[in-house]
Amino acid sequence: MAGRCSTVVRTGRSHVNRGTTMDQAPTRPTRARDKIFAVAAERFYRDGIRSVGVEAIVKEAGVTKISLYRSFPSKDDLVLAYLEERSRQFLERWDETFDRYDDPDERLRAIMTYLVERTTQEGYRGCPFINFCAEFADPAHPGRQIARATKTALRERFRHLAGALQARDPGQLADGLLLLVEGAYAISQTHGGGPDGVGHALVQAAEALVAQQRAR
């Protein structure tokens, strides 16, 4: 990953600053770049990052290797761009769902319902950040830094919500909700989705945690 500049994931309500390669000015998106990225993102998520080579990406995208390397100097840069984009999409969707409601209980229900829909849909392959960490064990890997920052941002959002829910211990409730969500990601890969999937219990489990924190 040498040559990669800072990667900043959106942890609060501000936008992500996409990292760029050192000595390379940011380029405007091109049609070839968009095709390359779309194919890579789909294949990385579906098949795993290590199993998808540059040759397969350019062949499916219908472009040349030169086109790929003009947009992404290395596969590592393409992988980091993929992780950054998945982080941006997830946190933006969270905030959009959250902002539809003023009542914290409705916010919790909306967020958990969204996560149920996400984890039980056809073709869901689990959390892309957990998947990445399973493939790349080095804790100093730039991709792991993106994964960690995304999970930290999610934890911060749960802490904010737990405070609004008037929990006795907002930190404990936030961590409990985070554990439920991470469990839903994992169980979707062992038990699958569908109308009878275990993940559908997520909303009720989250509300039970909140009720326990409110009990006197």
Write the SSE topology.
Elements: H1 31-47, H2 54-61, H3 65-71, H4 75-98, H5 104-120, H6 128-135, H7 142-164, H8 170-191, H9 202-214
Describe the structure.
The protein has 216 residues and is an all-alpha fold. The chain has 2 domains: 27-73, Homeodomain-like (Arc Repressor Mutant, subunit A), CATH 1.10.10; 84-214, Orthogonal Bundle (Tetracycline Repressor, domain 2). Helices cover 64% and strands 0% of the residues. The chain is built from 9 helices and no strands. The protein has helices at 31-47, 54-61, 65-71, 75-98, 104-120, 128-135, 142-164, 170-191, 202-214.
Q: TL;DR of this structure?
A:
With 216 residues, this protein is mainly alpha-helical. It has 9 helices and no strands.
CA radius of gyration is 19 Å
Residue stretches low in confidence (pLDDT < 50, at least 5 long) are: 1-8, 13-29
Q: What is the total number of structural domains? A: 2
CATH fold description of the largest domain: Tetracycline Repressor, domain 2
Number of helices: 9
Query: Into which percentage range does the β-strand content fall?
Result: under 5%
Biggest beta sheet summary: none
Name the shape in a single word: elongated
CATH second-level architecture of the largest domain? Orthogonal Bundle
Helix/strand structural class:
mainly alpha
The percent of residues in helical segments reads 55-70%
Oligomer category: single chain
Report the strand count: 0
